[in-house]
Amino acid sequence: MQYRLAPAARPVRLRTALLGSAFVTLIASAEEPTQPESDQVLTLQAIDIQGEAYQPQTTEGSGSYTTGAMSTAIGLPLSIKETPQSVSVVTRQQIEDQELTTTADILNTAPGVSYTRNDSNRLSFSARGFTIDNFQFDGLASPINGLWNFGATEMDSAIYDRVEVVRGSTGLLTGAGSPSAAVNFVRKRPLPDFAVSGSAGAGRWDERRGDIDVSTPLSADGRIAARVVAAYSDKDSYVSFLDYGSRTLYGVISSELTPSTRLTTSIEYQKNQTNGMGSGFPLFYSDGSRTDFGRSAANNTKWADFGTESTTAFVDLEHSLDNDWKLRAAYSRFDGNYRMRYLYRGGYPDRDSGRGMNASFLKYNGERSRDDWHLTANGPFQLLGRSHELALGWMSIDDDLNIDQFRPLGAVPDTGNFMDWGMDHIAQPVWSSTRASGDATHTKQTGSYAVVRFSLADPLHLIIGTRISDWQIDQDYYGSQRKYRYHNEVTPYAGLIYDIDKTYSVYTSYTSIFNQQNARSADGSILDPVTGDSYEAGIKAGYFDGRLNAAFAVYRTQQEGLAEAIPGVNVEGQANEQAYKAGTGARVDGFDLELAGQLSEVWNLSASYTHFIARNSDGEAINSNFPRSQAKLFSTYRLSGALSRLTLGGGATWQSGISRNNVARPGGFTDLEQGSHTLFNLMARYQLTDYISVSAHVDNLFDKRYYEQVGFYSQGWWGEPRSMSMGVRASF
């Protein structure tokens, strides 16, 4: 059977009407592209294969804003149209077009994902109203510790081919069945031929950035190949006494041991350094009135700093059997060092003297290590005269975190007038060299899963699966010893997909939720895991052989035990850690709408609109610090004729208002809001030669003034003002 993946030209008009809680009509009109002349378009030679057409997953060099297949949802390589959940991808082309230099930038671009800034380094990502608490790297899980995240979620984007996002619960593969999203960062692999590329750029606030990427065969027959990526970034800030720097080095070797066996080994080094700390600024004066500080204000000192340094080793062995089954054994070792020292000032300054705030001088050093194992097998089998697919897997995560504090010796320095935040007037205390008790937590998670994709009829597929998980947590939390055990927790999964025709499919899916959480009660104990159920249904379309994908989904999530902040209460003995209680009857209803890919060989588009409503059993809004609605749009178009070397692009991101209830203020509590706002950005790229291009970007085009965080410990953080950058890229 022959499939030609670069079809001949034929005009096609696309019309799809999607109904949700609001009536949405989506009309896309485009001519299916002819065989492309540029290497910026996804092009594959005609090949002879048996069964379904090959679906490429790698996005580098495709020029596309979508991917042919992804495995993050259920462990089987399925196209977006075949996956019974809301899935999105941020491709290599989109990363470069939008100049998404960090993983935080990438996630802020992904449909339905938002972030809240807790301070200069710690970001909290969310989807569908809940915090994203787990990342994956090449499919191996990496739990996020929100409290001790000193910038570890802002990695350089230079080493990634794409980022896959599955919204909704993915407990089948991750174990942590969070109803937010699973995010899988897929690293670059060696290319078949020698290639070298690099870029250099500069921007506002003295930004300097560069990277170089070299891929080369190591053997004459090309069976062994290597790739090295190095990147650096330095940037001052619009915030007083705050600047950032990062260094990244990534090396990978891919070896074809036999025609059926491939071994991939890699090592990744990341170092992030933040000089200054910046924990926001007070929103109230001591008389109860609101402050109105400029965008450079911060609760900061010149001697403060945050730093992370990590090394990740990765080994991936893949083997294909003659019966089309694929076996995989992957192991990852992570070692990280963390350091933090800063002054936190809480409370409210006097309007005249600037005094009256309480002060905490804090210093922490620590380490984290993690061992990840992942064993999988997947392939086809025959039953009742039809071909079906089965995937089996076992995973283990062994995570050790050890964070100790160092207290000041003697009397601490005077913090003076907060109104002098732009002056270097607060001395650093003398720190003890003795490590005091902090947070030492050992977490062990293991799980096994099985999932089957039954072909009930040519257009109808049923996916059923289950996972059994064990969790062990041993903790010494500031001298208090605690143990938590969860055994044989079962996470079922079911999905049904019906292909209406070659373009459209409809689906429904269900999974249960069991999600261990890091939130703490007032006595410092960890809250019990969240339990619940998640339901989803939708319609998907794949145009131009999947180069343009559209999707509409509705969903409902019900949870018990979800952490809810206790207004004005901190963890006992920890003045800077919010205390929580277990909520009841949390329910989220919402819908997602997305269109992404190539409208033509010169026109890329990524567009989405997402909305949800989240309430507890009393009908009160929960997690209101995450935007309920988001619209994201970005598009690029390469001009024709004499301007064919010029690509223009731009987009907008709109989000509804956010709020934080029961925020402490002098004399009581209040509710704070950040209204809805839209940020616009522009880009232009000119191809000077076949190998060299120059580009320019403008973010926050109209210099919108908005809060990235409002009300966290009665403080706020301004979003970044208008910024501009220019760069040059060479590829050979």
Automatic annotation (TrEMBL):
N-terminal signal peptide: 1-30
Pfam families: Plug, TonB_dep_Rec_b-barrel
Keywords: Cell outer membrane, Ion transport, Iron, Iron transport, Membrane, Receptor, Signal, TonB box, Transmembrane, Transmembrane beta strand, Transport
Membrane topology designation: Multi-pass membrane protein
Record GO biological process: siderophore transport
Domain of life of the native organism: Bacteria
TonB-dependent receptor-like beta-barrel domain mapped to chain residues: 258-701
The family this protein is said to belong to: Belongs to the TonB-dependent receptor family.
Xref: PANTHER family: FERRICHROME IRON RECEPTOR-RELATED (PTHR32552), HYDROXAMATE SIDEROPHORE RECEPTOR FHUE (PTHR32552:SF74)
Protein name: Ferripyoverdine receptor
